[in-house]
Design brief:
Order of helices and strands: EHEEHHEHEEEEEEEEH
Mean pLDDT: 93
Number of domains: 1
Radius of gyration: 15 Å
Strand order of the largest sheet: 2-1-3-4-12-11-10-7-8
Helix content: 10-25%
Length: about 200
């Protein structure tokens, strides 16, 4: 199985590639739209800023792949790119889900770095084997402001917001599953099962 990791040209993708390799997945970096169609799944990783990442996205190709049924995964910033826009700066998201990324409230330390709990709102194929609450690892200053039946799990840090969203073949996590211990490993295995 081959996963394309979209390379925005920013950040270190080593931990994500290592976690996927541990699960038996071959990965390659995709710049622009090259190679996306040949992958079994596409990952938008959680590195960098919204403005720079949005500028480097092959928007139409990614939208078409997501609509075609190909597993499309967004992690942290990658999940925020599933939305329409971000308060972080100008740039167009993919618009796969309505809403925007908003800055965490001023009364909490920003960025949120460390462990926090997620609470499941509903069970899906992405959450099989997870308890109602799990500890996961975050590194972020912005959160997804979106509401609907695509919200799978939430977390609280100054505000309650979606920690995981998904519909059909598309799933996004605000946390980093590749750094989230047993819960993150279970989520990655669920995603891999879906991709197969």
């Amino acid at each position: 199985m081959r996963f394309a990791i979209v390379d925005y040209g920013v950040g270190n993708l080593f931990s994500l590639r290592t976690a996927l390799k541990r699960e038996g997945v071959e990965t390659f970096l995709a710049k622009g739209s090259r190679g996306l169609g040949d992958a079994d799944a596409v990952v938008l990783p959680g590195v960098g800023g919204f403005r720079a990442a949005a500028k480097g996205l092959p928007h139409e190709e990614l939208r078409d792949l997501a609509k075609s049924g190909k597993p499309t995964i967004g992690i942290c910033l990658g999940m925020q790119l599933f939305l329409e826009r971000s308060e972080e700066g100008p740039g167009e998201g993919l618009g796969l889900f309505p809403g925007a990324a908003k800055r965490l409230p001023p009364e909490v330390k920003v960025p949120q770095i460390g462990w926090n709990t997620i609470r499941l709102k509903r069970e899906t194929e992405f959450t099989q084997g997870l308890p109602g609450e799990s500890w996961v690892y975050y590194v972020h200053s912005y959160y997804p402001d979106t509401k609907g039946d695509w919200v799978i799990a939430t977390t609280s840090y100054g505000a309650e917001f979606p920690a995981m969203i998904g519909q059909k073949n598309i799933v996004g996590t605000q946390f980093h599953p590749e750094k989230s211990g047993p819960a993150g490993a279970q989520i990655l295995r669920n995603i891999l099962r879906m991709a197969r």
